[in-house]
Amino acid sequence: MEHNQTEASGAIPGAGANPSSATLNQDIGQGRGVFISTYGCQMNVNDTERMYSLLEMANFTPVQTAEEASVIIINACSIREKPVHKVYSEVGTYRKMKEKNPDLRIGVGGCVGQQEKENLIKKQPMIDFVFGTDTIDNLPNLVAQVYENDKARVVNAKVEHRAPYHVETLVRNPGVSTFVNIAKGCDNFCSFCIVPFTRGREKSRPLSHVLMDVRTLVKRGVKEVTLLGQNVNSYHSECGADFADLLQKVAQETGIERVRYTTSHPKDFNQKLVDVMYANQPKVCEYIHLPFQSGNSRILERMNRGYTREQYLEKIQMIKKAIPNVVLSTDIIVGFPGETEEEFQDTITMVQEVGFETIFAFKYSPRPFTKAAKFEDQVPEDVKTERLNRLFDIHDIMAFDLVKRYEGLTLQVLVEKADSVEGKITGRTPENKLVHFLGSADLIGQTVPVKITKAFPAVLRGELVQ
Ligand code: SAH
Ligand code: SF4
Ligand code: F3S
């Protein structure tokens, strides 16, 4: 069933507004603040920046709190558990503000906007407009239209499945480290995942555009970029370049100091990419996020992941052989339909065998449109909870041991920001570890040697080597 092909673009019947016909009236933004509440992955964080930038160009003023805003946008995520309820409950908190301020307009975007479209407005009339993940660039028009047509309720969530993907990076204050989108959408259809339905088919940006973006960011003082895609390994440019080619060019032809990327898919992770990483160290950071989801091959097959436990472990061997100091993290789903206790044990042994320093583990959550939601052997909630807690307990002990190796080492830390505590600063190592240490805010943007004095699973403490 190709639910992902459904499109909605237009106004709620009777409200009399058509988003595509709006021409932007710059006066509409004048004196109006905009606040965006963001959930979800780096894609959404990046999209929020894009929304702020576009609305700022249309004369709206980004503000820090919902109370200061005339336009409130919820950029929502639908990857797990009751996302629509979260939206309604947040909208509910704005009820009093809306009663007091007739100028206030509330919008919902992101993957929930894409998924629910006009249903959101039908169920919660306090929502004035809804837009999807492919219509962000039309947001200023959409908002203008909401103001021009009093009481209009507007929906614009059309999906451009095969359109060329041309989006220059828009960030207001990129700081030291920022994201650069290289691809959108996903064609993998893992049986648990809603992303192919909310972000559409996979589309890669032209290689030259990505390089231009990174060069521009370097000129603006950015030291580190994270190349972003749902499955960066299947990036393919119109000119024939694959992800390894792109990574090499970003590292060698843009003047950037550090490059990261996320997320990798094990089935597409190959020797060429490992070789490019190795050849470009330390510029390309020796950190890889490689979600395995389940350590059991039967479950992996039901998940439609395209690899077995053994094949995943072979990829890990390939990586460790080339880059012995590599640091690995992963995503895991526990309690996928049909998962037995023995099969869950395979997930635990996988975590132990690979030695992941960080894991992101989640209880399986049935999602609309997905295959696995229809599987009949759903695992009871209490079993999922118990497995998740057990996994975290085992990993916590392991992670404490693993990070001990950092104590006494001197690591190269790219300083990102000053802490709230006076005199303290925070940066990141190539291994993606956050480090807190004493130092001047003047060091922000510089890479400095820091001797690690104490290591915790999530953060390291250290001293600046003078
Ligand atoms: N593109 C990335 C993941 C994007 S979603 C990849 O393929 O690895 C981020 C993570 O959310 C996934 O890796 C998975 O672990 C988790 N996730 C996705 N759908 C889920 C669901 N229905 N229930 C629980 N966790 C889910
Ligand atoms: Fe979802 Fe799978 Fe695509 Fe990742 S690769 S976004 S988990 S469908
Ligand atoms: Fe969520 Fe959409 Fe990202 S569902 S995880 S915001 S791609």
What would you say this structure looks like, in words?
- By secondary structure, the protein is of the alpha/beta class.
- Among the domains are: 19-154, 3-Layer(aba) Sandwich (Rossmann fold); 407-464, Nucleic acid-binding proteins (OB fold (Dihydrolipoamide Acetyltransferase, E2P)).
- It is 32% helix and 21% strand.
- The protein has helices at 42-57, 83-93, 95-100, 110-116, 119-123, 139-148, 195-198, 207-219, 243-253, 271-279, 297-303, 309-322, 341-354, 381-403, and strands at residues 9-11, 33-38, 61-62, 71-76, 105-109, 129-131, 154-156, 177-181, 183-184, 203-204, 224-228, 258-262, 287-289, 327-334, 358-363, 410-418, 424-428, 434-438, 447-455, 459-464.
- It has a 7-stranded mixed sheet with strand order 1-7-6-5-4-2-3, sandwiched between helices. Strands 16-17-18-20-19 form a 5-stranded mixed β-barrel.
- β16 and β17 form a beta hairpin.
- The protein is globular and about 65 Å long.
- The N and C termini lie far apart (62 Å).
- The site of FE3-S4 cluster has 13 residues, from α1, α4 and α7.
Spatial shape: globular
| Proportion in helices | 25-40%
H/I helix tally: 14
Bound molecules: S-adenosyl-L-homocysteine, iron/sulfur cluster, FE3-S4 cluster
How far the N terminus sits from the C terminus, by CA atoms, comes to: 62 Å
| Uncertain stretches | 1-22
Number of beta strands:
20
Overall structural class, as computed from helix and strand content, comes to: alpha/beta
- What kind of sheet is the major sheet? 7 strands, mixed
The CATH superfamily of the domain at 19-154 bears the name Methylthiotransferase, N-terminal domain
